[in-house]
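Weekly puzzle thread! Below is a chain. First person to post its structure in C-alpha cell form gets bragging rights.
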Amino acid sequence: MNASRAPRTATARTAVGLGLGAAASTVLGIADGTPWRLVTLGGTGTLVLLILAAVAIAAGLSGVRALIVLAGTGFLAAAVLQLVQIGWTGANLLGGDGSTVALLLGFAVGLLALGLAPAVTPAATQTPSSAPSQGRHDPI
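Winning reply:
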C-alpha cells in the first residue's frame, strides 16, 4: 500500500461498488432476449449510464464525498429527465421507460445516501463498555 494514500473507507469502497454495478447494468439494456433484457435503454441512455458509472467509480477511488454526491445528483437528474420525458413530453432522449427511471433512481439514492451521510469518526465508534458512564450509573 502506498504510504501517501489514505486507506479507503467503507463509503469509498461502496461508491466504487455502486459505480461498477451501474456499468454492469448496461448489459440489462443491451442484451437480446427476455432473461437479461430487464431495462429499456437507448444508445444515449447507455452512454449516460456509463459516464455516470465512471464518475461514481472515480469518486469512490478518490474518496471525496462531494464527488460521490455529484455522481448521485447526476443519476437523479437523469432519472428525473427520463420521468419527465415519458410522462409529459413526446421526446425520449435516453430511449428508456419506467424501468430506466427505477434503475437510475436506485443508483441515485444509494450514492446520495453515501455522500450525504455523516462521516463516522473514531469517537462515534466507541463501544458502550469503553464509553464513560453517565447519569444514574455514576458512582456516588
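Puzzle host: Confirmed. Bonus trivia for everyone else. The first helix runs from residue 10 to 24.
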